[in-house]
Amino acid sequence: MQRFLIWFYLSLNSFLYSQEIKITVVDSLNQSPIQEAIALNSEGQFISKSNETGVFLIDANRNNFIYIVANGYEQIQILPTQNTDLICKLIKKPEILHEVIIGNKRKAVKYGNFNLHRSMFTNSQTCNAKFNYLVCATKLIVGNNPHVVSYNFCISSESNNSPFNFQIYNDKHGVPDQVIYSQYIKDYKKGWNRVAISDTNLMLDSGTYYIAMQWLPSEDKSDVWFFEADGKKYYSIGQTLVMNKGDGKQFDSYMYNFNKWEHLYMKGSNYAHYIEAFEN
Description:
By secondary structure, the chain is mainly beta. It contains 1 helix and 21 strands.
């Protein structure tokens, strides 16, 4: 009886205080592991990235449910449980055949900031929380239910190659609210970059949205550096994203900093990035 009580106590204690669960992400068809899949929390913020064997380690006590996102696969939502070894099977996105237009070719519409003007300048992205996953967003107003085909962004230097999540947020009370689309991007170059949208059927209803870059520091944090000002320590993450000087009146770019969205008021500037879309 005493041995049983000891065993029961240890089992219960392990059950109550176990925090980490293992999630293995595989292809639903051939069961092969999916590398560099991304785990996001309910607010669209980065949690973890799968290794070469497709494995995440997730704190179940801190995440009510999570999204698993991988390039070329359907996004799924899962609920972490006390089961410490889960297998998550992702389904590849179907290839969509688009209509061939004979005659006048439709022209892609650009939403965002694509004119660098004469007074181009840059700014590194900083935040006050150690290894925080900084988000830089720009407000868009779209019409005619556009079909989004590419994301374009301009990098002024390539001191490292920090990956990032390209995100699209919907709007709530004039600031970004929920992530409605996310795509992992790496291996870019200095200057303008054009990345095709992996979801070939991404359509937006007419309305207000925000395009964003969520920088993801490397696992060893070698691409994160800090400086001190006014007695506070600030951390710099990611590349230097080019900014273009606006007319000083439009403040339509935002930074997620100090755990809230802040307007980017610096010299009336905006991040140099945009999406291309075909309007219907």
